[in-house]
Amino acid sequence: MRSARPPAWLRLPPGLRDWAPDDLARLRALEGRLRGAFEAWGYREVATPALEYLETWQRGTGAPPRALFVVVDRTGELLALRPEMTVPVARFVATRWPAAVARLYYVGPVFRGGEVVRGDGREFLQAGVERVGEGGPDADAEVVALAVDALRGAGVPEVRVGLGHAGFLRALLDAADLPDEERGPLAAALLRRDFVTVSARLATAPQEVRKALQDLPALRGPEALPRARRVGVGQDALDELEAVCDALQAYGVGHAVEVDVGIVRDFDYYTGVVFEAYAPAVGAPVLGGGRYDGLLARFGDPRPAVGFAVHAERALAACSGVEVASQVLEVYYDPEARPLALRWAQTARAAGVRVAAGPAPSPSPQGSGVWFRSDGPWWVQGGEARRLAPQELEALTRGGASWLS
What we know:
Strand order of the largest sheet: 1-5-6-11-10-9-7-8
CATH architecture of the largest domain: 2-Layer Sandwich
Radius of gyration: 27 Å
Number of strands: 16
Order of helices and strands: HEEHEEHEEHEHHHHHHEEEEHEHEEEEH
Helix content: 25-40%
CATH topology of the largest domain: BirA Bifunctional Protein, domain 2
Shape: elongated
């Protein structure tokens, strides 16, 4: 007999999760490392609201309402939770940032409606950068190099970045001579790597174009550019891609980057170089980005821009060495030792020790006074903190309050 489904108040909606303290501490540590890398490269933090008008998202991403979390304001206007961070940053820069050039970064949750795919959540943390106001291979190379540096600094092992160009795919779709209404579904099928659908939709395309589109996943590695050039389309895009590869050499990250002409990004605003980063044991990109020179123009301020976003939870899954804060030192006291123990706890907290203080269980296992429990307790005296050796801890707990006077 099938068991009854638990009531909604005992469950979470599909694709959402709770974060236990240890897991959240690891995520926050990863977030801190990413912030440190972004700031080391001269990027400054910006924050935008989680809710914006639905029209903002439709204008920026072309996303249909079913792909978004849409809510109705009390005035009847339609709002949507942000599905990514590039569009709101572009809207902010276009409407609020007068300087011609901006190096900005952000950290915040994003929300995806629709079906849950590839094990992704419907809410997850993104951390990324946007370099606005400068085009060309030097700006692209800086952002790609920063992506490698940030992931390495966050503890992601064996980072590998695939580098492609949105213009090459666009040129292939132009050469396929498809009706406008067919291009979107074909691009979506390429994104899903659904080559059965790709083949069916290309039935009337020229043979060489059909073959090139079907072979996109294999167009990566040292021979990818020469092979892509032999297709005979998108030569300007391939020239730009080669120029970025050359500019990357000065950053010393060339061994972590390979040409991957088959990259298809999931938003239609990309106009130039696109890239994704991968890590072992993670089945989806941990980072994605590219150049989007037309996006700010949709908000009335045509400026070139390039950026990327880290999928923080995927990056965390790839990390094995993200350190978390040290264990809490538990301080217990008997009633007569309470004032002394609380003074000690305050001194310890001021010295950076994490202390939880409270009455001892009854009866106290240590006798009268104050006692400690932790895998790595600290002793604070004279304004200095140091980790206690096992024999010192034994003496401290055995000696009671006399050590704390």
